[in-house]
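anyone seen this seq b4? input:
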Amino acid sequence: MTHLPSLLLAQSSTAKDAAGGVVVFIWLAVILLMIIGMWKVFTKAGQPGWVSIIPIVNIYFLCKIAGKPWWWIILMFIPIVNIIVGILLPVAVAKSFGQGVLFAIGLIFLPFIFYPVLGFGSAEYQGPAN
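predicted toks r here
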């Protein structure tokens, strides 16, 4: 009778490990999808794709694709302002590919879906919209 709680605890731990493994797998899949999608968006816009995996550098090149000044990177380090820039930058990227505001909202809230769609879809890079 005293072994029953320890047996249940062992099963519970195994279930937690399995659930944790599933979460990690899904997280890695989302990260990989983002990398592949952004890489393709960068190459479609005439930029080197490998810069999409380097933090901060990828924001610089995203600003170039969107037609925004390089110093927007500095704004990304300012609290509250970074939220505004984090909204305006995907909107400008969407416009650079001839997409509308709804697509930009997708880039903001579901980037792991919309960056691959932008990269592998039929949208062509038109340059920054003025």
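The mean pLDDT is 89. The radius of gyration is 20 Å. kinda curious what u guys think
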